[in-house]
Amino acid sequence: MTDIAPGLLPEGLHDRLPPEAESAATLLRAVMDATATHGYERVQPPLAEFEANLVGRLKSTRQQDLLRFVDPVSQRTLALRPDMTAQVGRIATTRMAGTARPLRLAYGGAVLKVRGTQLRPEREMLQTGVELIGSDTVAAVAEVLRVALDALEAAGVTGVSVDLTLPNLVEALAAGPMPLAADKVPELQACLDGKDAAGLTALGADAYQPLIAAAGPIDQALKRLRTLNAGDVIEERLDAVSILADGLRNRVGVTLDPTERHGFEYQSWIGFSLFGEGIPGEIGRGGSYTIVHADGREEKAVGFSIYLDPLVSAGLGRSERRRVFLPLGTDESVAAGLRAQGWATVAAISQGCNGTKLGCTHQWNGLEAAPL
Amino acid sequence: MTDIAPGLLPEGLHDRLPPEAESAATLLRAVMDATATHGYERVQPPLAEFEANLVGRLKSTRQQDLLRFVDPVSQRTLALRPDMTAQVGRIATTRMAGTARPLRLAYGGAVLKVRGTQLRPEREMLQTGVELIGSDTVAAVAEVLRVALDALEAAGVTGVSVDLTLPNLVEALAAGPMPLAADKVPELQACLDGKDAAGLTALGADAYQPLIAAAGPIDQALKRLRTLNAGDVIEERLDAVSILADGLRNRVGVTLDPTERHGFEYQSWIGFSLFGEGIPGEIGRGGSYTIVHADGREEKAVGFSIYLDPLVSAGLGRSERRRVFLPLGTDESVAAGLRAQGWATVAAISQGCNGTKLGCTHQWNGLEAAPL
């Protein structure tokens, strides 16, 4: 084993230094406070669990994406959580199975993956969000979207837009009003993902052409989708989306991409992605889904997750605390008074201490905090 | 591999449910805010590092105490941090080696160990604290003690007491004014640990008898230790302890156990344990120590750590947020107004929702939040 430089960290793992470490904490605090005002109560699952339990509940992570280790105590394979939503689902269906529904839970903490993505190479990420368990109605989804927008606002994200999607629409259409053999559905979805109109024709699925054209601003999308002759399967969803859009449009931009499935494989009737000005890529996502109890009972749910690291990178969460240097001999009651006024006091502990070098903008001169 | 019950967690790993999860976050926030007002800036190292780097810096944790795994990306053995102070030391001596001293850093986050202790069987714990890097003078230690007391006060801990210790005193005495062969020092220390007066006599170390009698309330302890005829080695330390005690005695109880070494093996001239009323065992500890740069350069430092879980268990950090139930059809502007007033709003999303069952104490009646 060759030496590893003492300051070196494994790929995808990083220190957050000042002021970013504080920003991350500030953002998490802002999001959790916003969710708490909507009645979401915090749960804090452990960083590691039995791999078998974690894999069984993970919605979009495969076993090979997990950081695993053999626990010397239990002699079992444990895995670090790559996502907290599966753990919240476990809590909701076990220790909180008897708690009144809808159960509103919030969470925030570190998650770890084997590999990051090209856009986001970090392997340790700060994930936060909520799950509303016991319902996936329009009212439930509308609430979760409202909480998500309040959370992003509290975090200082501006220029927010929401991209809605209908994850199980294509399957429902193919199985019903716009029939297509089940074994052709994957090809159909590939054509829709690629906006491949010619492919749809070749597949004998021209009825699906309006789905390609529909993606875009919500009003135009809804109008185009209304032209699909597909009865309740589409009308119910469009009515629901229309209600959701009405709740969103006065606050944020809304688009609809009815066939977008990437990352929504486990969502049921509705999914959404959250975007913010100046932040590359998606900053959060969510939607409706089903959780399964140990006895096989299914329960509807809806939730959202936000990853805070891109917000930190975009400079959000910065709180400038004024730093005042206290020369040697400054009375402790003076120092306490300045702290009570919101100053960070930086006390000299020897003649050599220098306020400017220690990041102070002010210095106590015996009477007041004077600019340095 | 037999089945694992879906709700089962590995030994020593737990979910924090409402309200404890929120309490833990509230306590961490309180401590970090208190340290920030003293100019300590937060760093957030990753949950896992190269084992080799972590082991090299760990002060009191051995390799077999680490939860380790092979990272599929680097093909190296990584370890989950069992302690954050070693990581803060790494940051201070690498990426922040060039930052002005004294360097004041704060940290808070989860740590994981292979095994808990009998008193504290948890393997995942929430650790927080500060490190002041670049000095271990009396002024530096006094500041760190003051920050620790402010942090405990902010966390709501009452009846705090500080037990001071002089970790390297016995070694220094044996090597100097109260000579004893180096190979007999471990036996000497065992006698002192066991308050074994007869053992000291048998060892020909009667000169050390006053150290046994001295442990206790600070003034009495200092008085008894002054009777040791050991020159500067003891006088310097007692003068320093006397100054530290003067800074503490108006806020908290202070004791001195001059030979206590358990858990202070890596501390230099001063160590301390923190206790609080109604909380079993030690709630925090700290002291002076030496960190080593990659080039061999040594730097003095002082810090403290608090583990927040016992505080959560003792019921600290609880913040009762008033919960008001909003019947179906309550206007969103009413809801927003209530949230702005500090209420947690719990909105009905169907006719079946019941405010009392959902933990609400109040219900919006169209005019006001009325008690349920």
Automatic annotation (TrEMBL), chains A, B:
SUPFAM superfamilies in the record: Class II aaRS and biotin synthetases
GO biological process: histidyl-tRNA aminoacylation
This protein's name: ATP phosphoribosyltransferase regulatory subunit
The entry's keywords: Glycosyltransferase, Transferase
Pfam family membership, one: tRNA-synt_His
Binding site for L-histidine: 83-85, 127, 131
A single cellular component GO annotation: cytoplasm
GO molecular function annotations of the record: glycosyltransferase activity; histidine-tRNA ligase activity
Domain annotation Class II Histidinyl-tRNA synthetase (HisRS)-like catalytic core: ranges: 12-311
Domain of life from the UniProt record: Bacteria
InterPro entries with a match to the protein in the record: aa-tRNA-synth_II/BPL/LPL, HisRS-like_core, HisRS/HisZ
